[in-house]
TrEMBL record:
<feature type="domain" description="Helicase ATP-binding">
    <location>
        <begin position="31"/>
        <end position="195"/>
    </location>
</feature>
<keyword id="KW-0378">Hydrolase</keyword>
<dbReference type="InterPro" id="IPR011709">
    <property type="entry name" value="DEAD-box_helicase_OB_fold"/>
</dbReference>
<dbReference type="InterPro" id="IPR002464">
    <property type="entry name" value="DNA/RNA_helicase_DEAH_CS"/>
</dbReference>
<protein>
    <recommendedName>
        <fullName>RNA helicase</fullName>
        <ecNumber>3.6.4.13</ecNumber>
    </recommendedName>
</protein>
<dbReference type="InterPro" id="IPR048333">
    <property type="entry name" value="HA2_WH"/>
</dbReference>
<dbReference type="InterPro" id="IPR001650">
    <property type="entry name" value="Helicase_C-like"/>
</dbReference>
<feature type="domain" description="Helicase C-terminal">
    <location>
        <begin position="236"/>
        <end position="409"/>
    </location>
</feature>
<keyword id="KW-0547">Nucleotide-binding</keyword>
<keyword id="KW-0067">ATP-binding</keyword>
<dbReference type="Pfam" id="PF04408">
    <property type="entry name" value="WHD_HA2"/>
</dbReference>
<dbReference type="InterPro" id="IPR027417">
    <property type="entry name" value="P-loop_NTPase"/>
</dbReference>
<dbReference type="Pfam" id="PF00271">
    <property type="entry name" value="Helicase_C"/>
</dbReference>
<dbReference type="InterPro" id="IPR007502">
    <property type="entry name" value="Helicase-assoc_dom"/>
</dbReference>
<dbReference type="Pfam" id="PF07717">
    <property type="entry name" value="OB_NTP_bind"/>
</dbReference>
<dbReference type="Pfam" id="PF21010">
    <property type="entry name" value="HA2_C"/>
</dbReference>
<dbReference type="InterPro" id="IPR014001">
    <property type="entry name" value="Helicase_ATP-bd"/>
</dbReference>
Length: 678
C-alpha cells in the first residue's frame, strides 16, 4: 500500500524488554538451582527483575502443572498490588486471571490464577486452613531483608512445612547481602529435628547473586545538620531542578503527613517561582494511596517536566521506579517500637541504618550516573547510623503473632524456630495480654471458642475481642461497623486544600460527644441510610467515597466470619430510637470497646494531657480526634503515634473507670494499683 504510515505500523514498547534486565542472564541457572534444591536464596539489587521475572520463569518452566500455583509474598500491601498489575500487564492478561493478588480484605484471584502475589501475613493466615500450603509448588518470600514479623514467622513455618513436603520449593529473595543467614537458617536442624537425629546432612540450597549493572553514584552530605529535614528536602529538590541535568528526583521522607506537606509546598512554590520552577511535577508515594494515584508514579513525566517523587520507605526496595537520577535521603524512617513496660506500640521516626542508606542511594544509579543528597553530615553517618535495624520481631507487640502461632498448633511459642529469637520480656508481655483478653487459659493454651475465633478474625486481638464480645452487649451490628471503619488504615475525612474548616464542620454534624468510635459509626450509618451509599453524599460531607465503600465491603467480610462462627448479626437498624435508647445503646458500645481495649486505657490530667494506665506515659489527643481540646476523664484509645517527642493517641472513646475492672479484673489485679497510678 502506498500510504504506509510509521505511526500506524509501530507501537512504542510499553516496557523495557525483560531480556535486558540483569536477571535475564541467570534464567537457566535459577531454574536449575530451583529444580535441584529445596531452597534458593536470590540476592540482587532493586530493579534487577527478581519480583516480576522469577514467577514468570517458573510458570513457563512448568511449575504450575497439575493445578499448583506460585506464591510470591511481599511485606507491603502496595507492593503486592502494583507488582501483580505489572506482571499481568507483561503477560497481557487481566489482573485476577492468570496473575492475581490477595491482601487483607481484598482477594483479586480466581480459579485461573497461577501466579499469586500476597502479603506474607496473608499466607500465614492461609496456613490456618491449609497447614502444608499444599496449593503452592513454589513460594517466594520476597523482600526478606526487611525482616517484618510476618516474614520471619513465615520463614519458620516454611522450614517446618519443608520436612513434610520435600517437593516444595522455597525462594528467599533479598536486596541486601544477608544471604548466608537465610541459608544457614534453613540448613540448621531445629531442636525438634535434633532430637530425632536422622541421616546425613543434605545440601539444602544455594545462593544466587545477581550482578547488577549500576552506574557510579556521587554521595553528598550536608556540612552541618539540617534543622528541619522536610524544609531541607524541598530546598534540595529546587536546587537540583535548577542546577543539575536531566533526570527525576526521588525524595525519602518518613510518613504521609510529611509527604503531603512537601508535595503541596513544592506545588505552591513552583507556581509562585515562575518559569524555571514550573516544570517540576511533585508526586506522593505511600501505602495509603489509591491504585490510580500510585500509577502516576510510574508514568513518564510530561514533555520537558521533571518528576519529584516524595516517598516513604516503600521506594527503598519494594517499588521500583525507572528514570531516577537524583535521590534525596532525609536519614530517617518510621519504625515500629513497642515498649513492654508501658504496653504501647508506636510508629516513631528513627535514624535509618547504613544498609538502608546505601539502598536508598542505589535508587539513583540505575540508568546513568546519579547523585544522592544525604540530609545529614558525613560524621553522623559514620558515628550514629547503626549497621542494620533490629528485625521487627525484636521490637513489636507480639500478641498477634503468638495468637497465630497457637492457632497453627505451635503451642510452645518460645521454642519455635525463629530467624532471630524475640526478647523474652516481649514474649511474656504478649502472653499476659492474650491471657487477660481471654484468648489463652492459665496453661497458655488457646481457649475454645474465643481464642480460636480471635485468631481467625482478620483484625488485631483487641478488636477481635471487642467484636466477639459485642453480642453480649447487644451492639454487634454497630461494633461491626466500628471495626470496619477503623480497619481502613487512613482517614475517612477528605478535603482539598483550604477546605479543612469546612471538613471539620461536616465532621461536627456526625460528632458524638462520647468520642471517635461513635462518630465513625454515625458517619457510616448516615452513608448507608440517608446517603444511599452514593458518592454525592460523601462529596457533600467531606467523606472519602473510596474509603466508605471499602468500609462497606470490609464490614460484609467481617460479618461473614462471624456467621461462620454461628454468630447471628441482627441488622434491624433502629432508626426510630428515642434519645434515651440512643444513650443506652451508646453506653453498650462503649462498654463493649472497653472489653477489648482495657489495656489501652488512659485518664485525662488537669493539664489536659492523658496518662496511660500502665506506664504513666504522657499522651496527647491527636488533632484528628474528636477529643482534641475537649474535656474527658477515663478513655480507651486504639492507635498511638509519635511525632517529634510527643506521643499522640487516636480513635478515642470516653469510658467509666468501673468498666475497666469489670472487663479485666485480673489484668488490673496483676499490676495492682494500675488504675490508681494514672
Ligand atoms: O524485584 P526487583 O527489585 O529485583 O525488580 P522488579 O521489581 O522485578 O523490577 C524489574 C523492572 O520492572 C524494573 O526495571 C522496574 O522499573 C520495572 N517495573 C515497573 O516498571 N513497574 C512496576 N510496577 C514494577 C516493575
Ligand atoms: Mg522486588
Amino acid at each position: 500500500m502506498a500510504e504506509f504510515s510509521l505511526d500506524a505500523s509501530f507501537i512504542p514498547a510499553l516496557h523495557k524488554p525483560p531480556a535486558l534486565l540483569p536477571i535475564a542472564k541467570y534464567h537457566d541457572s535459577l531454574l536449575y538451582v530451583i529444580e535441584t534444591y529445596p531452597v534458593t536464596i536470590v540476592i540482587g539489587q532493586t530493579g534487577s527483575g527478581k519480583t516480576t521475572q522469577i514467577p514468570q520463569y517458573l510458570e513457563k518452566a512448568g511449575w504450575c502443572a497439575d493445578g499448583k500455583i506460585i506464591g510470591i509474598t511481599q511485606p507491603r500491601r502496595v507492593a503486592a498490588t502494583t507488582v501483580a498489575l505489572r506482571v499481568a500487564d507483561e503477560l497481557g492478561c487481566e489482573v485476577g486471571k492468570e496473575v492475581g493478588y490477595s491482601i487483607r480484605f481484598e482477594d483479586v484471584t480466581s480459579s485461573a490464577t497461577r501466579i499469586k502475589f500476597l502479603t506474607d501475613g496473608l499466607l500465614i493466615r492461609e496456613a490456618l486452613v491449609d497447614p502444608l500450603l499444599s496449593r503452592y509448588s513454589v513460594i517466594m518470600v520476597d523482600e526478606a531483608h526487611e525482616r517484618s514479623i510476618s516474614t520471619d514467622v513465615l520463614l519458620g513455618l516454611l522450614k517446618k512445612v519443608r520436612r513434610k513436603r520435600p517437593e516444595l520449593r522455597i525462594i528467599v529473595s533479598s536486596a541486601t547481602l544477608q544471604a548466608e543467614d537465610f541459608l544457614k537458617f534453613f540448613a540448621s536442624k531445629s531442636e525438634e529435628q535434633n532430637s530425632l537425629a536422622k541421616g546425613e546432612d543434605e545440601e539444602v540450597g544455594k545462593i544466587i547473586s545477581l550482578e547488577g549493572r549500576t552506574y557510579p553514584i556521587d554521595i553528598l552530605y550536608l556540612e552541618s545538620p539540617a534543622e528541619n529535614y522536610v524544609e531541607s528536602a524541598i530546598a534540595t529538590v529546587f536546587q537540583i531542578h535548577t542546577q543539575e541535568g536531566e533526570g527525576d528526583i526521588l525524595v525519602f521522607l518518613t510518613g504521609r503527613e510529611e509527604i503531603d506537606n512537601a508535595v503541596q509546598a513544592v506545588a505552591e512554590r513552583s507556581v509562585q517561582g515562575g518559569e524555571q520552577f514550573s516544570n517540576l511535577q511533585p508526586l506522593p508515594l505511600y501505602a495509603g494511596l489509591s491504585s490510580e494515584e500510585q500509577m502516576y508514579i510510574f508514568d513518564k513525566p510530561a514533555e520537558g517536566k521533571r518528576k519529584a517523587i516524595f516517598s516513604t520507605n516503600i521506594a527503598e526496595a519494594s517499588v521500583t521506579i525507572d528514570g531516577i537520577v537524583y535521590v534525596v535521603d532525609c536519614g530517617f524512617v518510621k519504625l515500629r517500637a513497642y515498649n513492654p513496660r508501658t504496653g504501647i506500640e508506636t510508629l516513631t521516626a528513627a535514624p535509618i541504618s547504613k544498609a538502608s542508606a546505601s539502598q536508598r542511594a542505589g535508587r539513583a544509579g540505575r540508568t546513568k550516573p546519579g547523585k544522592c543528597f544525604r540530609l545529614y553530615t558525613e560524621r553522623s553517618y559514620e558515628d550514629s547510623l547503626p549497621e542494620a535495624n533490629p528485625p521487627e520481631i525484636q521490637r513489636s507487640n507480639l500478641a498477634p503473632m503468638i495468637l497465630q502461632l497457637k492457632a497453627l498448633g505451635i503451642d510452645n511459642v518460645v521454642r519455635f524456630d525463629y530467624l532471630s529469637p524475640p526478647p523474652s520480656e516481649l514474649m511474656s508481655k504478649a502472653l499476659e495480654l492474650l491471657y487477660s483478653l481471654g484468648a489463652l487459659d492459665a496453661y497458655a493454651k488457646l481457649t475454645k471458642p474465643l481464642g480460636f475465633r480471635m485468631a481467625e478474625l482478620a483484625v488485631e486481638p483487641m478488636m477481635a475481642k471487642t467484636l466477639l464480645s459485642a453480642k453480649s452487649f447487644n451492639c454487634l451490628s454497630e461494633t461491626l461497623t466500628i471495626a470496619a471503619m477503623t480497619s481502613l488504615g487512613g482517614s475517612v475525612w477528605f478535603y482539598h486544600d483550604g477546605e479543612q474548616k469546612a471538613m471539620e464542620s461536616s465532621r461536627r454534624r456526625f460528632a458524638a460527644e462520647e468520642g471517635d468510635h461513635l462518630t465513625l459509626l454515625n458517619a457510616y450509618t448516615a452513608f448507608v441510610t440517608k446517603g444511599g451509599k452514593e458518592a454525592r453524599f460523601c462529596h457533600e460531607n467531606h467523606l472519602n467515597y473510596k474509603s466508605m465503600t471499602r468500609a462497606v465491603s470490609i464490614r460484609a467480610q467481617l460479618k461473614r466470619y462471624l456467621e461462620r462462627f454461628n454468630i447471628e448479626v441482627d441488622e434491624s437498624l433502629a432508626t426510630h430510637r428515642s434519645e434515651i435508647d440512643a444513650k443506652s445503646k451508646a453506653e453498650q458500645i462503649r462498654r463493649c470497646l472497653t472489653a477489648g481495649y482495657f489495656a489501652h486505657a488512659a485518664r485525662m490530667q488537669p493539664d489536659g494531657t492523658f496518662r496511660n494506665v500502665e506506664g504513666g506515659t504522657v499522651m496527647h489527643a491527636h488533632p484528628s480526634s474528636l477529643l482534641f481540646n475537649r474535656k474527658a476523664d477515663w478513655v480507651i484509645f486504639q492507635e498511638v503515634t509519635e511525632t517529634g517527642d510527643k506521643t499522640f493517641i487516636c480513635d478515642i472513646t470516653k469510658i467509666e473507670k468501673a468498666w475497666l475492672l469489670e472487663a479485666a479484673p485480673e489484668f488490673y489485679k496483676v499490676s495492682s494499683g494500675r488504675a490508681e497510678q494514672a
